[in-house]
Amino acid sequence: MNSPVYLETARLVLRNFNEADLNTLVDYRSHPLCAQYQRGQFKDRENLSRLIARTKTDDPFSIGQSRLAIARKDTEEIIGDLFVGISKNTAALGYTISYRYHRQGFAYELLSAFLPALQCQFPNYDIICCTDTENTASISLLLKLGFIKEGYRKEIDSLMFRLPK
């Protein structure tokens, strides 16, 4: 693996993207099961190739926006991606897990490890996630992780969740 590893769990690593991730990224980002709840996400090869090039050095623990690969530790294959946007005392998270890996506990595993690390790095920041009102799997996951439902935000057409400090 050429990319630095920012976080490791029993089955996963959080790392930067590399060119070898492109085919898998295009596959799950363009699949209806993943794309149905994503707004403004790139799905085509050309834009995803640019995204990989732009995010090769992203660090989830720095101010600004990062997009990182969630990869299996055993095969290095990406199974999803994590967005982290940090600004103005707020850390906003977004995630996509490949349809091939839905309902296997990967998002819970990654976020259970990532959230405490993020809270340690940014102890006074609000950590928020937004999700489509119909994305029951994501809503259940956020509640299981301890997020509190803040309500519907019309301007972004999403439910907003906040992690208590």
Summarize the main sheet: 8 strands, mixed
Q: Structural class of the secondary structure composition?
A: alpha+beta
Stretches with pLDDT under 50, minimum 5 residues: none
Distance between the termini: 34 Å
Rg value: 15 Å
Number of helix segments? 5
Order of helices and strands: EEHHHEEEHEHEE
Average the pLDDT over all residues and give the rounded result: 92
Shape: globular
The proportion of residues in beta strands is: 25-35%
Structure description:
The protein has 165 residues and is α+β, with helices and mostly antiparallel strands. 29% of the residues lie in helices and 32% in strands. The protein has an eight-stranded mixed beta sheet, with helices on both faces. Strand 5 (90-97), helix 4 (106-121) and strand 6 form a beta-alpha-beta unit. Helix 1 (22-30) packs across helix 3 (45-54). It is globular. The chain starts with a strand and ends with a strand. The model has no long low-confidence stretch (mean pLDDT 92).
